[in-house]
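Support reply, case 0932

Customer input (verbatim):
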Amino acid sequence: DLLAPDDISRSMEDRQRKPLALMEDGKGGVLVRGQEEEIVYSANEIYNFLERGSAKRRTAETLLNKQSSRSHSIFSITIHIKEATPEGEELIK
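Our regenerated output:
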């Protein structure tokens, strides 16, 4: 998990976890089993998560590519919009 805290004390078994499972959601989207979810309230918070994940990615040189990726990142955003009805009731879309 690219957002997991760096912890040298983690066991070797924990560091060698199996890859996350990708599944279709039936609506043309993709779900990631085991994916972490974070609630944010600003674009800056989103950028901070992107930077944290990007900083933990691993690259190495190959014969064809000087900075070939050795890890991948999945970043999905779900936006909820809160509106108030004329009666004052909050609706989340």
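We compared this against your earlier run and they match. Two observations from our side: The beta strands are 21-24, 30-33, 59-60, 68-69, 82-84, 90-92. The radius of gyration is 18 Å. Please reopen the case if you see a mismatch on your end.
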